[in-house]
Amino acid sequence: MSYQDHIIEMGQLIKSKNGTWDGINPESVARMRLQNRFKTGLEIAKYTADIMRKDMAAYDLDAGKYTQSLGCWHGFIGQQKLISIKKHFKSTDRKYLYLSGWMVAALRSEFGPLPDQSMHEKTSVPALIEELYTFLRQADARELGGLYRDLDAARAAGDKAKEASIIDQIDNFQTHVVPVIADIDAGFGNAEATYLLAKKMIEAGACALQIENQVSDEKQCGHQDGKVTVPHEDFLQKVRAVRYAFLELGVDNGVIVTRTDSLGAGLTKQIAVSHTPGDLGDQYNSFLDCDEVDASQIGNGDVIITRGGKLLRPKRLPSNLFQFREGTGADRCVLDSITSLQNGADLLWIETEKPHVEQIASMMDRIREVIPNAKLVYNNSPSFNWTLNFRQQIYDAYKAAGKDVSAYDREKLMSVDYDGTELAAEADEKIRTFQADGAKRAGIFHHLITLPTYHTAALSTDNLAKEYFGAAGMLGYVAGVQRKEIREGIACVKHQNMSGSDIGDDHKEYFAGEAALKAGGVHNTMNQFA
């Protein structure tokens, strides 16, 4: 409803109470209602799922309409990201949040910092989703509160045109609440455990869950060694469990992102069950590294499979894991991806070891031969050395084209000595256009950076500590932080306002009228930043 409709409805309700509610101001109720548009996490999940579905359809028509997100490890970080987006771009369209299991493990576990191996408390994931949306809803309340104050000032000045303009802004207000793609790791247990956790994450507001095909109790970060995958049927149980959770809670448009780690995973814990040649289990087992044997060569405890009338002994490691043949990673990624999409997944995630558009496209081309509208979520990972990778890509392109590369040492291209070169400039341009290029060439619908705010927090803190505890003293903070906040229009320079002080003052006035003891008076030092 519009602002005026809310006021009218509340006025009628108050009037119906025969004077007992006359102390309630209908316009104040209207303001509070609009400041709290989403009452539950499920409302958020349904609303944001519709946004993602709309964006996916738009991308199918125009690959230039890809989406983006940054990983955020705290509600405040997510809030500031969306406030910044609205400030600079006037819209949150096609801009999401990403919740990284890596950052939950490293920053939000009661055990302290942990590696990305699913050792953190599973409840910390839905807790962070709820926290993110709490802060985003508060950002709505804060911005609308500012509009209400402007509206009151316009009325007090008798400026009807400005009053009408502000009411229009209120009626067309765009919320800070955007979709979150949330990392459920490998499901934290069996399919039932996955279902239970998925429900908690959806109830907290998640409209999109990302699940990977690693063994849950052997899970590793996608950019570490030692990854172990599971047969497709095991993984699909968890995909179905997530879908059941969405459907049970009424989020029929919920989005499932299936991630394959097969490109870097050379091991499996299980040999898949196969009933007929060429079935899904047989395809999974076809990638195993095996020795052909006869009955006389079978040893005690050996595991034997048959294929094409031959006896094969999969190579088993002392860890009781089985290894895949070298060079089969891309083929396994393609099979994983097609199988996932054919069994209820909506988006894919292929974890790679480097950011290379043609490498990604080489797999997506094969997937799209079977499923033409297959779309990818891609991790623009801080685990990649982007500068070195792209300089080496340009170096290799130069060399392939017969261009003289004698001035460059391929292994040392990260050096500052190359920063001013033609090669470095071309590499930087390729980094700049990587997301647009990947969206157009490799079917990447959503680009995310998993851990950016982990690194920005470390970098900004290092800069402040270096200056403040050094010769600059207090100037280290003033010049390096506050002065920049003021001049760049960073809302947080008014930290009392950001924490909700003005919202609280508004409520005090609603509740107590002229008797309200408000914090935002003339002596509030925040007025120095007006």
Fold and architecture overview:
β3 (about 180-185), α8 (about 190-205) and β4 (about 210) form a beta-alpha-beta unit. The chain is built from 19 helices and 14 strands. About 50% of the residues lie in helices and about 10% in strands. It has an eight-stranded parallel beta sheet.
- Unreliable segments (pLDDT under 50, ≥5 consecutive)? none
Average pLDDT level: 94
Helix content: 40-55%
- Counting helices, strands and paired strands, the structural category is alpha/beta
Terminal CA distance: 33 Å
Oligomer: single chain
Instruction: Give the amount of beta strand, in percent.
Output: 5-15%
Largest sheet: 8 strands, parallel
What's the alpha carbon Rg, rounded to whole Å?
28 Å
> Main sheet: which strands, in order across?
12-6-4-3-2-1-14-13
Morphology: globular
Q: How many individual helices? A: 19
Which properties best describe this structure?
530 residues, alpha/beta, eight-stranded parallel sheet, 49% helix
Helix-strand layout with pairing:
Elements: H1 3-15, H2 26-35, H3 41-61, E1 67-71, H4 75-89, E2 95-99, H5 101-107, H6 124-156, H7 160-171, E3 180-183, H8 191-204, E4 208-212, E5 228-229, H9 232-248, E6 255-260, E7 267-268, H10 280-285, E8 290-293, E9 305-307, E10 310-314, E11 322-323, H11 329-341, E12 347-350, H12 357-370, E13 376-379, H13 386-400, H14 422-432, H15 434-442, E14 444-449, H16 452-468, H17 474-488, H18 495-498, H19 501-512
Parallel strand pairs: 1-2, 1-14, 2-3, 3-4, 4-6, 5-7, 6-12, 13-14
Antiparallel strand pairs: 7-11, 8-10, 9-10
Helix pairs in contact: 1-2, 2-6, 4-6, 6-7, 6-8, 8-9, 11-12, 12-15, 13-14, 16-17
